[in-house]
Amino acid sequence: MPGLAAKPIIDLMAATERLDRVREREADLARLGYRYEDTGMPNRLFHRRSSSGVPTHHLHVVTADTWESRNERLLRDHLRANPAHVERYAALKQQLATSSKDEDAYTRAKSPAVPCAKPAAQRPGAGRPTRSEMIAGWERSTSVLTADCVSS
Predict the structure, then answer these.
(1) Contact 83, 3 (CB under 8 A)
(2) Which of 57, 80, 86, 148, by CA, is between 20 and 30 Å from 1?
(3) Distance (Å, rounded) from C-alpha 47 to C-alpha 38?
């Protein structure tokens, strides 16, 4: 994301029809330096690649049926459309990065800002919303990354 400070780790996300087929290819990923870690996240596999013990890459593999509604993608699209929110989100990330050296704690701390309005977009009983419905509901209901979500 242009203009957004980031940790020196390349985050990748890929989609597959079946996660078990990816698990069957663990040896291939290991040859590329990726190691599987159980994060407890449903419908997602997580692989970390390191160099000299320092993480360099994260590979998230998700199910194809969840690809369109992934928080990471929705946030990316929202930030691209709202440059002022990039500055707020960057400030939050900087603050969290200086307050915690634990990568998992950093991710957990910024997580509430990422899907700030996602619950409003997921209507009980209405089935899975489309990507455009989620973005519209997200923006309409809580003004993502405004003072309600991220204090600067």
Answers:
(1) yes
(2) 148
(3) 9
**Are residues 91 and 49 part of one domain?**
no
The verdict on residue 1 lying in a domain is no
Residues paired with 45 in a beta bridge? 61
Count how many domains the chain has: 2
CA distance 65 to 124: 18
Contact present, 47 and 59 (Cβ < 8 Å): yes
Could you give the CA distance from residue 48 to residue 100 in angstroms, rounded to a whole number?
A: 20
The mean-pLDDT minimum among 25-29, 65-69, 74-78, 142-146 falls in 142-146
Q: What is the pLDDT of residues 27-57, one digit of tens each?
A: 999 999 999 999 888 889 999 999 999 999 9
Task: Name the DSSP class of 113.
Answer: G
Pair 126, 65: CB distance under 8 Å: no
